[in-house]
Amino acid sequence: MKMKFNLVVLAALLVLTTACKKENVNDKEVLLDTISAQRPEAVETTTPTAQVPADGKYSTMTFQKEEHDFGTIKQGDKVSTDFQFKNTGEADLIITSARGSCGCTVPEYPKTAIKPGETGTIKVSFDSKGKQGKTNKTVTILCNTKEGNKILNIHANIEVPNKN
């Protein structure tokens, strides 16, 4: 009798868990559909779907550096660096978004197309407020390259000032 009760409870939990997951996925899809219908520029895909261009030509981002170390900084310092790149591909480079791994890392990127052979800059600002020790942050760039994205890295060693 006790075994039957446990099986019934287990089955009920399984059904409820599965039903909730399906409902959440549908809710998210409805929300994304609503947002994209009202403001298509507000919807960002986290996994780019690289489509082969009709002419088969892609843009390519070639960076002078893909990583920057700010060295040792004091907690609360605001620092920034520029990541220079060149479009070494055969098509216009279009950056659709650039996102920091947290709110303390803010990228600024070109909003216009970068033609083949032209250069551009992505400025990355980092606010060390509330951080301490060795810190690694990333910036993910979504663009129309064959890979669909590019990741830049920044590092810092943040010292907490003495309160004496």
UniProtKB/TrEMBL annotation:
<dbReference type="Pfam" id="PF07610">
    <property type="entry name" value="DUF1573"/>
</dbReference>
<keyword id="KW-0732">Signal</keyword>
<feature type="signal peptide">
    <location>
        <begin position="1"/>
        <end position="21"/>
    </location>
</feature>
<dbReference type="InterPro" id="IPR013783">
    <property type="entry name" value="Ig-like_fold"/>
</dbReference>
<protein>
    <submittedName>
        <fullName>DUF1573 domain-containing protein</fullName>
    </submittedName>
</protein>
<dbReference type="InterPro" id="IPR011467">
    <property type="entry name" value="DUF1573"/>
</dbReference>
